[in-house]
C-alpha cells in the first residue's frame, strides 16, 4: 500500500518547535491546505519545496511573532509573579535553615571567593571616576611619545620639552596647549619651617584646561607672574598653619623665592595628576638656563618628566592633529641617528586606566596589571562557584521528593529553575555580608601591597555598594545555574521514587575534576609562596662579597665629600668613613653606567668611583696589587678591577694584570693598580661582569660610615648634629646597608604576601568544598559503613576506605600542579634573576605537605567520625 | 498613523469583503493571487491580516474542526464597522482625486 502523501515532516516539526505554546492551529492548517492545493498544480518535490518556503515565511511573519508574544503572557505559564517569588524566598529560607551545616559551608566558601572580587570591584569603581571632574574632560588630550634612542624603544607618557611650544605656534586647531614639568620638587622654606613639597611647573593655561578649583586667588591671573605659586589647601595648612597664605613668600630649594597667588582645593585622589604646588613653566625654563649643570641635550631629546596637554575645540578633529604630530616628528628627527620620537595622542579619559606607559605623571593603572588582577579574581571566585554547584548537585537526593511533588502538581521546569536560582542568590547575598567584612579587613593590607596605593581610595560609595549587591546577584545566578538546570530537568517519577537520578559517569568525573583542579590551584599558590620566600631570603642573606653589617649609607646631597669624611671621622661612634659614587649591591642607585675600554675590542664595563677607605671599610678582598693610596695626586691614573675584568680582557693571572694599561673610552690611559675578588656590585638579577673602581673625588655622592656603637639613638643624634654643621638645613638621609639591601629585594616580599593571601583563599575554598563532599559521602554511605562494621571491619580500615579516593585526587592534583609551577618559576620568574635559588625537592615537599595535611585533616575529621559510629544506630537510621 | 491603510491592506480588506463567509487564510491568498496575478507568501499575508486585526478593521473567529487540514480549524475573517469606514474614506479620497484630475487622466492623446 502506498503511503498517503504528507507535508514534509521536518518542516512541520520545525514549525511546531518554533511556535512552542503559541496558538497557531489555524496557521498550520492554512499551510497544510496550501500544500495539498499545490499538489494538484505541481510535482511533489516542488510542492514540498514550496511548503518549506511557506513555513519559513510564516516563521518570520509578524503574525507568529505576535502570537508567540501573547503566549508568553498567558496566565498558565507566567513565572514572575511576586507571590511566587515570595514563596520561593520562603521555601529557600526554610531549606537553608534546615540544612545548617551545608548552608554554612556554602556561605563561607562563597564569601571567601567573593571577598577578593569585592576588592577588584571597588578598584574598578574607583577608577571609573578618574579625571572625570574636569569640565572639559572629553576634550583634553595628551601627547605620548614613542622614544627610540637606539638602545631602547619604549612608549612614554611624556614628550620632548620643545614640542609644546612648537604646537602652540604652528598649529591653529587647538584651543590651549599646556606644558607640564614634574621637576618642581624641593624643600619649601617659610620662616623657620621647612617641608618637602612637590608639584608642577605648568603654563598659565593649566587652570583653564584642568578645572582644579581655586579656593582663593584669581583663576586668570594666578599663574601670570613668573614667581607666582599655587599651593593646595593641605600644603598651605602645613606651611602657614592658620595664617592667610596669599601673598606669602616661600623659598623652594634651588628654584628661588615664590609668592603664593592662589590656594587650590585639595587634589582628589581620582586625578592622574597629584601635586601640592604649581608654578609657571617660565620659572622652570629660567632655572634651566641659569643652572650650571645645563646638559648638552637638545630640548627635542629631553623628555623625562615633561608633558604636553592640549585642550581641543568642540567638535575637534584628532586625525588632523595626529597627522600634524607625525609631520613634526619627521621634520625634527630626520637625520638624527641617535634619537627619534613618534608622537601619539591620548585622550584624558584613556589615561587611567589606560595602556602601560613609561614615565607616567602620576599613579598609573595599566590595562595589563588590571587584567592580571581580574584573572586572579576569577581564579579565586570560580572555584567557589564550582564548589557550590558541586555540593548542591551532590545533595540532590535530599531535595528530590520536593521537586517531584512540585512537578506533579504542575510546577513547570522554569519555575523550579527560578526557585533554585532564588535560593542561590539568597546564599550569595548572605555571603556578601561576610565577604564585605573580609573586604574591610584586608583592604588596608591590600592597599599597602599596591605600588600606587597612595592615590587610591577604596572606601565604597553608594554606587560601589550597589555594584557589590549586583555582583552578588550575578554570582548567585551564575553559580546557581548549573544545579538549578539539573533540578529543573529531574524526572518527577524518578524523583518521587527517591532513586538517585541516573548519574552518568560524566558527572562523577566532573566533580572529581573540580576537586582536583582546586587542589592543583591551591598547591600552585603554596609552592609560589615557598619558592619566592626562599628567593627573598637567599637574596637578602646572599654573600655579596662585601661587608654590610653596621655600615650606614649617607646621601651626601652635594656636601663636600672630603669635608664630610674629615668631620665624621672625628665622631667616636664612627669607626671609619669611606666614600663612593653610589650604593653598591642594590638596584636603584645610579650605578649602571657603561664604559667601553678599548684594547682589542671594546667591552661593556661597569664602574664605581670610590675613595681609598672604601675597600677596607667594606671588607672587599684585594687579591693582587694594592688599594688606592691616601690623597695621592696620581690616584686618578689608577683603577682597581675585579677578577672577571682580568678574565675577560685576558690579562692572565691577577698578578700579571697589575700595572697593565687600559684605555678608557675618553681615551684616558689608566693603569691597573690592584685586583679585587668578584663581588656583587649590582642587583642579583645581573651576573657579575667586568668592573673597576676609580678614584674620582668629583663623583662621590655617598658616604659609608662604619658604625661602632651600642646606643644607636645617641649615635644618630651625634651624626645629625655633625650633618647640620656641614649641610645646614638639608635633611640627613641615611640607611643601614642591610636595610637597603632588604628594601631592594622587597619586591619578592610583596609577592610572598600576595601569593600567600591568594593561597590562603584558594586552600580554604578547596577545603570547604572537600568538606562538603566528604560529609555528603559519609552521610549517604552510613548504612554501608554500618554493615561493614557488623561484618567485622575496624574503624581504621573504614576511615582509610572512605579517605582513599580523596587522597588519590589530591595526589593527582599534585602531579598536575608541581610540574606547571616548577616550569613557571624555573623558566619564567626566577630566570630573570641571574643568581637565583634552585627549586629543590625540599620546597616541593614542603608545599605538598602543607596541602596534604590540610586536605587530610578535612577528610579525616569526617571519615573518622563516620567510621566510629555505632552500627546499631546507623543501621536503624532511615 | 492609526487609520492609515496601505495598498496591500486595502486589497486584503476588499477581498475579505468579497469572500463573505468564506474568508480565511488560504482562500484570501488564492483569490488575491488569481485576481492580481502576483504571488503572495502566506507569511506576509498573515502579517498583514494580524496588523489589520490590531487596527480593528477586521475581526476573526475559529471555525469548526473538519477532516481536511489534519483536523485543524480555520480562522475566518469579517470586516468590522471601522474597516468599512476606512474603505469608504479611502474610496472617497480616490473618487475626489479622480474627479479633479479627469482631463489629465484621459487615455486618448
Characterize the structure shown:
With 878 residues, chain A is an alpha+beta fold. Helices cover 52% and strands 15% of the residues of chain A. Chain A folds into 4 domains: 9-83; 137-350, no CATH class; 367-537 and 747-875, no CATH class; 551-744, no CATH class. In chain A, a hairpin with a 5-residue loop joins strand 18 (661-663) and strand 19 (669-676). In chain A, helix 14 crosses helix 15 (462-488) and helix 24 packs parallel to helix 27 (841-868). Chain A starts with 8 loop residues before the first helix and ends with a helix. With 109 residues, chain B is mainly α. Chain B is built from 5 helices and 2 strands. Chain B has helices at 7-19, 25-36, 42-55, 81-100, 102-105; strands at residues 58-62, 75-79. In chain B, helix 1 (7-19) crosses helix 3. The termini of chain B are far apart. The interface between A and B is medium-sized, with 23 and 23 residues.
Name a few traits of the molecule:
heterodimer; A: 878 residues; alpha+beta; 4 domains; seven-stranded mixed β-sheet; six-stranded mixed β-barrel; 28 helices; globular; B: 109 residues; mainly alpha; two-stranded antiparallel sheet; 5 helices; 2 strands; 58% helix; elongated
In short:
The complex is a heterodimer of chains A (878) and B (109). Chain A has 878 residues and is α+β, with helices and mostly antiparallel strands.
State mean pLDDT of chain B (0 to 100 scale). Answer: 87
Helix segment tally of chain B: 5
Share of β-strand residues of chain B = 5-15%
Instruction: Return Rg of chain B in Å.
Output: 16 Å
Give the helices and strands of chain B as they follow along the chain: HHHEEHH
Largest sheet of chain A: 7 strands, mixed
Strand sequence of the main sheet of chain B, in spatial order? 1-2
Work out the number of β strands of chain B: 2
Proportion in helices of chain B: 55-70%
Coarse shape of chain A: globular
Euclidean distance between termini CA atoms of chain B: 39 Å
Uncertain stretches of chain B: none
How would the global form of chain B be characterised? elongated
The helix tally of chain A amounts to 28
Low-confidence stretches of chain A: 501-506, 587-599
Major pleated sheet of chain B? 2 strands, antiparallel
Amino acid at each position: 500500500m502506498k503511503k498517503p502523501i504528507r507535508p514534509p515532516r521536518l518542516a512541520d516539526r520545525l514549525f511546531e518547535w518554533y511556535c512552542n505554546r503559541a496558538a497557531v492551529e489555524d496557521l498550520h492548517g492554512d499551510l497544510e491546505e496550501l500544500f495539498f492545493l499545490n499538489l494538484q498544480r505541481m510535482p511533489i518535490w516542488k510542492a514540498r519545496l514550496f511548503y518549506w518556503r511557506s513555513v519559513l515565511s510564516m516563521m518570520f511573519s509578524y503574525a507568529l511573532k505576535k502570537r508567540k508574544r501573547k503566549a508568553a503572557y498567558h496566565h498558565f505559564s507566567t513565572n514572575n509573579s511576586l507571590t511566587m517569588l515570595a514563596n520561593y524566598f520562603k521555601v529557600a529560607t526554610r531549606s537553608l535553615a534546615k540544612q545548617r551545616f551545608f548552608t554554612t559551608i556554602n556561605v563561607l566558601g562563597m564569601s571567601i571567593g567573593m571577598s577578593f572580587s569585592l576588592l577588584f570591584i571597588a578598584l574598578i569603581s574607583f577608577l571609573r571616576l578618574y579625571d572625570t571632574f574636569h569640565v572639559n574632560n572629553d576634550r583634553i588630550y595628551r601627547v605620548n611619545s614613542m622614544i627610540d634612542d637606539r638602545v631602547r624603544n619604549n612608549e612614554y607618557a611624556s614628550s620632548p620639552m620643545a614640542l609644546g611650544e612648537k604646537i602652540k605656534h604652528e598649529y591653529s586647531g587647538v584651543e590651549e596647549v599646556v606644558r607640564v614639568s614634574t621637576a618642581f620638587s624641593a624643600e619649601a622654606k617659610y620662616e623657620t619651617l621647612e617641608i618637602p613639597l612637590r608639584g608642577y611647573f605648568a603654563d598659565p593655561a593649566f587652570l583653564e584646561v584642568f578645572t582644579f578649583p581655586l579656593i582663593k586667588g584669581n583663576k586668570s591671573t594666578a599663574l601670570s607672574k613668573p614667581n607666582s605659586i599655587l599651593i593646595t589647601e593641605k600644603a598651605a595648612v602645613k606651611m602657614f598653619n592658620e595664617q592667610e597664605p596669599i601673598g606669602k613668600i616661600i623659598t623652594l630649594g634651588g628654584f628661588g623665592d615664590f609668592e603664593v597667588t592662589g590656594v587650590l582645593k585639595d587634589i582628589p585622589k581620582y586625578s592622574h595628576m597629584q601635586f601640592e604646588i604649581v608654578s609657571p613653566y617660565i620659572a622652570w625654563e629660567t632655572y634651566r638656563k641659569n643652572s650650571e649643570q645645563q646638559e648638552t641635550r637638545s630640548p627635542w631629546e629631553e623628555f623625562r618628566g615633561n608633558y604636553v596637554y592640549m585642550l581641543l575645540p568642540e567638535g575637534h578633529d584628532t586625525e588632523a592633529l595626529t597627522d600634524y604630530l607625525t609631520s613634526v616628528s619627521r621634520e625634527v628627527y630626520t637625520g638624527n641617528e641617535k634619537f627619534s620620537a613618534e608622537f601619539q595622542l591620548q585622550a584624558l579619559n584613556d589615561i587611567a586606566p589606560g595602556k602601560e606607559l613609561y614615565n607616567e605623571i602620576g599613579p598609573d593603572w595599566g590595562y595589563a596589571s588590571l587584567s592580571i588582577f581580574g584573572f586572579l579574581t576569577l581564579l579565586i571566585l570560580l572555584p567557589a562557584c564550582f564548589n557550590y554547584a558541586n555540593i548542591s548537585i551532590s545533595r540532590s537526593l535530599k531535595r528530590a521528593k520536593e521537586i517531584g511533588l512540585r512537578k506533579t502538581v504542575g510546577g513547570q521546569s522554569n519555575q523550579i529553575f527560578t526557585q533554585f536560582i532564588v535560593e542561590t542568590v539568597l546564599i550569595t547575598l548572605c555571603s556578601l555580608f561576610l565577604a564585605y567584612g573580609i573586604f574591610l579587613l584586608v583592604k588596608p593590607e591590600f592597599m599597602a601591597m599596591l605600588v600606587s596605593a597612595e592615590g587610591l581610595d577604596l572606601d565604597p560609595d553608594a554606587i560601589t555598594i550597589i555594584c557589590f549587591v549586583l555582583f552578588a546577584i550575578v554570582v548567585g545566578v551564575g553559580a546557581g545555574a548549573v544545579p538549578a538546570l539539573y533540578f529543573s530537568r529531574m524526572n518527577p517519577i524518578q524523583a518521587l521514587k527517591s532513586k538517585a537520578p541516573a548519574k552518568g559517569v560524566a558527572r562523577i568525573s566532573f566533580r572529581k575534576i573540580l576537586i582536583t583542579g582546586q587542589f592543583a590551584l591551591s598547591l600552585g599558590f603554596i609552592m609560589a609562596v615557598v619558592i619566592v620566600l626562599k628567593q627573598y631570603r637567599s637574596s637578602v642573606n646572599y654573600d655579596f662579597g662585601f661587608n654590610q653589617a653596621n655600615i650606614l649609607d649617607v646621601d651626601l646631597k652635594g656636601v663636600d665629600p672630603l669635608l664630610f669624611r674629615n668631620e665624621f671621622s672625628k665622631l667616636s661612634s664612627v669607626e671609619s668613613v669611606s666614600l663612593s659614587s653610589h650604593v653598591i649591591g642594590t638596584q636603584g642607585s645610579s650605578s649602571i653606567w657603561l664604559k667601553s675600554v678599548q684594547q682589542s675590542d671594546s667591552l661593556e664595563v661597569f664602574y664605581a668611583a670610590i675613595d681609598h677607605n672604601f675597600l677596607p671599610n667594606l671588607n672587599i678582598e684585594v687579591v693582587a696589587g694594592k688599594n688606592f693610596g691616601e690623597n695621592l695626586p696620581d690616584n686618578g691614573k689608577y683603577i682597581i678591577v675585579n677578577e672577571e675584568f682580568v678574565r675577560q680582557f685576558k690579562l692572565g693571572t691577577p698578578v700579571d694584570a697589575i700595572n697593565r694599561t687600559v684605555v678608557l673610552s675618553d681615551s684616558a690611559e689608566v693603569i691597573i693598580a690592584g685586583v679585587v675578588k668578584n663581588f656583587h656590585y649590582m642587583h642579583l638579577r645581573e651576573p657579575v661582569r667586568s668592573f673597576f673602581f676609580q678614584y674620582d673625588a668629583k663623583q662621590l655622592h655617598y658616604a659609608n660610615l662604619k658604625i661602632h656603637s651600642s646606643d644607636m639613638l645617641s649615635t644618630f643624634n651625634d651624626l645629625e648634629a655633625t650633618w647640620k654643621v656641614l649641610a645646614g638645613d638639608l635633611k640627613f638621609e641615611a640607611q643601614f646597608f642591610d636595610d637597603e639591601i632588604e628594601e631592594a629585594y622587597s619586591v619578592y616580599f610583596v609577592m610572598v604576601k600576595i601569593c600567600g593571601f591568594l593561597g590562603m583563599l584558594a586552600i580554604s575554598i578547596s577545603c570547604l568544598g572537600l568538606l562538603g563532599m566528604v560529609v555528603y559521602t559519609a552521610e549517604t554511605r552510613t548504612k554501608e559503613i554500618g554493615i561493614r562494621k557488623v561484618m567485622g571491619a575496624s574503624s581504621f580500615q573504614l576511615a582509610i576506605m572512605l579517605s582513599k579516593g580523596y587522597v588519590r585526587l589530591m595526589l593527582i592534583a599534585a602531579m598536575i600542579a608541581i610540574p606547571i609551577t616548577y616550569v613557571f618559576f624555573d623558566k619564567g620568574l626566577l630566570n630573570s634573576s641571574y643568581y637565583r635559588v634552585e627549586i629543590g625537592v625540599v620546597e616541593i615537599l614542603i608545599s605538598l605537605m602543607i596541602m596534604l595535611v590540610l586536605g587530610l585533616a578535612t577528610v579525616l575529621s569526617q571519615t573518622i567520625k563516620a567510621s566510629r559510629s555505632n552500627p546499631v544506630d546507623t543501621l536503624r537510621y532511615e | 498613523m492609526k487609520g492609515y491603510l496601505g495598498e496591500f491592506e486595502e486589497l486584503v480588506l476588499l477581498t475579505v469583503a468579497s469572500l463573505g463567509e468564506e474568508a480565511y487564510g488560504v482562500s484570501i491568498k488564492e483569490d488575491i493571487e488569481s485576481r492580481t496575478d502576483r504571488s503572495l507568501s502566506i507569511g506576509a499575508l498573515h502579517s498583514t491580516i494580524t496588523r489589520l486585526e490590531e487596527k480593528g478593521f477586521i475581526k476573526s473567529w475559529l471555525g469548526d474542526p473538519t477532516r481536511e487540514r489534519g483536523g485543524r480549524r480555520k480562522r475566518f475573517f469579517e470586516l468590522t464597522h471601522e474597516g468599512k469606514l476606512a474603505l469608504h474614506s479611502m474610496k472617497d479620497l480616490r473618487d475626489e482625486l479622480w474627479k479633479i484630475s479627469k482631463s489629465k487622466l484621459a487615455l486618448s492623446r
